[in-house]
Every structure is written in structure tokens, then in C-alpha cells.
Amino acid sequence: MADTQGRVAPLAQPWSDEDATAIGRWGHPEATYPPLLLTRCLQRIPALADRTRALGESLYLHGQLSARQRTIAILRTCAQIRCAYEWGGQAAFWGPIAGLTEDECDALVLTGPDDPRWSPQDSALIAAVDELEATGSLGDAIWAALDLTDEQRMELLVVAGWYRTICTLCNAMALPNEDWMRPWPVAAATDEGMPR
């Protein structure tokens, strides 16, 4: 395993024009961070990279959830899977765009849905992600507690599932955090306080 890149080497440079274009299509158009290690690894299989990017991009460009709802769901999914890489990128870049403070991003790793900082709807969303991870479904009580349309509920299921896939990929490839990403909250270094 390489010390700085994880278990899978990213696509080596020089990149072809097609690979450079594909890698450059990932992320926010105003992103100032360099091409992600994850995307450079995925680009070793261009067809898989394209399909993966298309679904993720659609959740941002044509999403039914608000930026805050989507980001809370993503960060909580990352916390449940204990994926420091994806959590770190999402917390650093998308957290501020969605209006989440650093403290709120950390709380999605360190505390539960009953934390007093959360509104009732934020709490319901966090509890829904927790239940999805624990059971693979949502019970009637959680379904009803979500103040969302059916379309938003369905999108929430896709967001949680898609980011579970991304987190599993990042964890299994042992991707290290990149310099610009937020570090995993220190108090979460042990299982104490971690969501289950």
C-alpha cells in the first residue's frame, strides 16, 4: 500500500485529453481544490467513473432536497460508515455552501439526533439516516416524522445509499484525507460518541 495514496494508485499522468476532461468534470464548478484522489482512482475505469459521476451529479443539479438537507444526510452517512475521506471533503467544501457550521459538521459524527442544536426536522433527518444504516429501511414513525414530500423521501433513500457506496469505496481503498479536507473530529477517534 502506498503511503500517500491508499491501496489503489490513481491514474498516472500524463492524462489523455479524455481523461483530463472526465476528471475535471467532478465537483463544483467553483471548486479550488485539486482533482480528488478518489476521482483519479476511479478514472482507471472510465465507464465506471462516468456512471458514478452521473448519479452523484444529478443529486446536486436536479435534487429535490435542499442543500442543507442533502449535506446533513451525506455527512451523517459518512459518519455512520466512518469514512474520514468523504466526510472531510464534504465538511470542508459543501458544509459552508449548505450553511452548516464546523461545529454542526462535527456533531454529525459525535452526537445523535437528540442533540439540542438540531431542529426537529434536522433531528428527523439524522434519525432517518441512522435507521437506514441500522436496518436498511425506514419504519412508519420515521417516515412520518420527515417533513418531506414523497419525492424528497425517495431522494433521501438514494442519497444515503449512494454515499454509502462512495464511503465503502473510499474506506476499502484506504484513501487518506487530502490536505484541504477537514480532519475527522478528534473526539471521534474512538467508538465513544460514535453513531451506531
TrEMBL record:
<protein>
    <submittedName>
        <fullName>Carboxymuconolactone decarboxylase family protein</fullName>
    </submittedName>
</protein>
<dbReference type="InterPro" id="IPR029032">
    <property type="entry name" value="AhpD-like"/>
</dbReference>
